[in-house]
Amino acid sequence: MTYFLLLFLALFQSAISPGRGTGAVASVAVPGYSDNFSGTGALSANWTVVTASGYTSLARVSGQAQSSPSGTKGLAIYTGGTFGPDQQSQATWGVSSDGGATGVCVRMNASGNGYCWIVQARTIYLITGGGGVTALTTSCPSTALTGIVRLSVSGTTLTCANIVGGFPTAGAVSVTDSTYTTGYPGILVDGAADATNYIVNWSGQ
Questions:
Q1: Which of 177, 188, 168 is nearest to 136 (CA)?
Q2: Does the predicted TM-score (pTM) go above 0.85?
Q3: Whose CA is closest to 102, among 10, 192, 203?
């Protein structure tokens, strides 16, 4: 009996341990970080506001991340986690008509250097000092005024994609750039274009 019990435990351990046996869980996505911006007030301490190029803060407004003060443009990066060079930033964005520079960012730092997908413009920008100095592509997928968007980077490849059912839809666009290799995922909300623009249900890894 003891022999069979030990054999069962050994097989079970092999099945659940990453990288071991046919039951390895290496294919399972590693959980990242998320924020649904519930409530009202300042963003949590996990976020760092980027003030380069005149950006202001962001705040939770009835469960949405909006610019603060209202009518300004806010940029924040999620520094409450550990991120490698390969990252993604995903969120639901919402605009009434003019999304302006609202979007999601990767490899962004507190000096305002990184990459952002400006959703309505269908453009991934190389951002330096908070300003979009180079449009790496202007062919990102067209997105509804409210929808789930994801900017990801792997190595030197950046990809913008609409997300439906948890998966990228057809039409995702990729472009390469090697300017920045480190930083954090983040969000950009352009309340100057429309004070009601928002980001909600953010996740990153």
A1: 177
A2: no
A3: 192
How do the domains of the chain map onto residue ranges?
A: 37-204
Q: CA 147 to CA 143: how far, in whole Å?
A: 7
What contacts 124, CB < 8 A, 6 or more positions away?
Answer: 115, 116, 117, 118, 135, 136, 137, 140, 151, 158, 160, 175
Query: What architecture does CATH give domain 37-204?
Result: Sandwich (2.60)
More confident residue, 43 or 9: 43
Summarize pLDDT for 128-147 with one digit per residue, the tens.
999 999 999 999 999 888 89
Tell me the pLDDT band of 96, cut-offs 50, 70 and 90. confident
Check: CB of residue 194 under 8 Å from CB of residue 98: yes
